[in-house]
Queue: 3 jobs
Job 1
Amino acid sequence: MRIDLHTHSTASDGTDTPAELVRNAAAAGLDVVALTDHDTVRGHAEAIAALPEGLTLVTGAELSCRIDGVSLHLLAYLFDPDEPELARERELVRDDRVPRARTMVGKLQALGVPIEWERVARIAGDGSVGRPHLATALVELGVVETVSDAFTPEWLANGGRAYAEKHELDPFDAIRLVRAAGGVTVFAHPLAVKRGEVVPESSIAKLAAAGLDGVEVDHMDHDEPTRARLRGLARELGLLTTGSSDYHGTRKTVGLGECTTDPEIYGEITRRATGAFPVPGAGGPRPV
């Protein structure tokens, strides 16, 4: 059983529409895929409508948070999307994305990059504008070779020359809100040092004590020593360990199902969730 619990669509910063994403997930041989766009659930209805036979969809979102000045992302699964307090916080984060992106465009222009807001807006389309859209613009302009090359201190990495902060949730509040909405939380790529400063393990322990359910271990931005370190930490703290692609379509080189989650862990996530339930495609999930 192949399970990928972290993907993005054009509802945020991926290049596949939600319908394309679920079709591509089925073509990649996945049995379960989670749609976890940044701070939005806007793509869920389209993904459910297009869900192929044999593929199960886990609804979710990747929530933007900050602790002690360090940004982090929480994957929230199977929560009630209509729970008002969590919905209001997601809206606050989304509303801040355009002013933040415009600020970063201004910083890039001050650094001599011939970038215009209209180009970034075109790339973002109907999605929630974010740094990957600016990174794609930098690739188009020949400033960097790949999207990943834009996420360095020279450009868009946390604290980088063109970085700008945005409204972000306190992760302890986020955990509380997701749990109140019947959902499950997993710390996304917690030790991805190539992205910038990471949260110390002492803070992960505090988040675990506050109700964090798991950590994403198998991820393209974690090398093998880092994965081993995270597994050991998860054992100490009683946290679930997941794996996923963090798929963004053509915006990144990683493919669907490049990293996956153990079926037993997936089963525990679904057992803990009460806000929503996995959605099977017509005919239900393929047999294990």
Note: Residues 97-110 form the longest helix (14 residues).
Job 2
Amino acid sequence: MVAIVDSGSTKSDWVILDDFKKVFLKTETIGFNPNFINRELIAPEIQKNSNLILVKNSITKVFFYGSGCGVEKNRETIEAELKKVFDKAKIIVKEDLMAAAYAAYKGKPAIVCILGTGSNSCYFDGKEVKIELPSLGFLMGDEGSGSAIGKQLVRRYFMKKLPADLHQEFETDYKLTIEDALKNMYHAPRPNAYLADFNKFVVERKDHPYFVNMVFEEMKSFFEYQVMPYQEANDAEINFIGSIAYYYENILRSVAEELNLNVGHVVQKPIESLVDYHIKYIL
């Protein structure tokens, strides 16, 4: 059996293929971004999933694609922790951009972007992934991401920048104190996922003129920082992977149109396309 995993900062999608390359199992765990999660929690979190534990001894390969895995040290961390559970398997760990590139590939070169809890971009010609820009994380980067939009919302709430109706609704829904916010942002694990979770509030009101403008500016920042530096940006199709791109697709396309850029397709969850790519090109 082969396990294919697409792991973001919030959650991980798992697909287990049998020996005939057919889907045997689909399941989820929390996300395993080594920049935010204590490594000692990774194996226990996987072991909480009874479906994975039932098949773990039959798995001979694990293809793990994860946010935060662009750095060798982090890849080694994930590999070591996965090996504790799947001790009979060969573990292959790559960054999430590789998964996005594979999942978004439709036979022609394209710029591929991730817009989920975090954000990132690359250029994929069908064989090689070109990454010209570093991922600076949610403190300095992640423009257009769930954590960036959540950060904007929380900041504007506390600084009394939201319109009266949105301020009141946010206050009623969350009853958020500055003490709780600071505790979760600076002293709790996975602060980027904590901020991204506030997107539920924005998505439910994404047609509100204030949020249309706020998200528009955040997406514009994403294109300016993470897409336009690529020399291929003006000619190549730009494809998106991730829930944030999916939820705000109309705004995303409006920004691209203003910048004379060509957005192709937007995929909410890449796991199925990622599995198809492995069956066709890798396994």
Note: The beta strands are 2-7, 11-17, 23-30, 61-66, 90-95, 110-115, 119-124, 129-130, 237-241, 263-267.
Job 3
Amino acid sequence: MSRHQDSDKRHPGSGRQGGYKKNSNSRGNAPIRKAPSKFGPKPDAPKSNKPKQPSNPDEIRLNRYISNSGVCSRRDADIYIQSGNVKVNGEVVTEMGYKVKLTDVVQFDGVNITPEKKEYILLNKPKNFSTSGDEEKGSANVLDLVRNATKAKLQPVGRMDKTTTGLLLFTNDNEIIQKFTAPNQRSSKVYQVTLDKNLKFEDLERIQKGLTIEEHRVYVEEISYIEDQPKSEIGLKMKTSNVKIVRKIFEHLKYNVLKVDRVTFAGLTKKNLPRGDWRFLTEQEIINLKNA
């Protein structure tokens, strides 16, 4: 063994000499020391002994109530609330974070609203079902025909007596209900009317020109005999959704009305909808209905 090799063991040198490598703290080789991270876990905050108040499932924030009704977004609802456009049980509420009960009456710009999803159902109403809630006990109501369609609280748009058949719209959208039951609403409906005798042509012309019934002027958009049918089968187009007016037009001229069938309602038809059946409106039909 050479002198150099023996010296290397006693005095370790560089690796090139075959000796033991000395730990170096030169740049790039310094031991890594981890500084405490500002993103590290924070010490637990002292727990409060104050019990958390449980939320009331029967209450909902007013802005959410309005948003759920479909009127506007929750952010816009806050603006309307602050502006005094919202009433709860008849009182204006401007307080942010105000909570209401589902049984409260909430008005937005004077219109009652509900936090339910808006539903729209079209029924081809059969005979012997009434829209009125004050019929004699045991009589059938149209709501029985759509009761299992949705959990929403639906109302029929307009009224129909037991003998009238045809299209009847149901919804929980109060704006639509008020729109299509207002006296000045603009959407057209088509009725097929069956009389006890043929309608005289001069009476048809009188109806077309307008009649004064009970001191009110009644106008129709169109009236005609139905093609390939007896002249006791009449087609009538007018804006009213009040079937009583349809009957009064002919009764005023001494005809007995045997049957009234509404075949179109604000652009909706009975196509592929058998008597007694119902269906949900499509998104496009809902848009058309709101713009009608």
Note: Residues 76 and 121 are 29 Å apart (CA to CA).
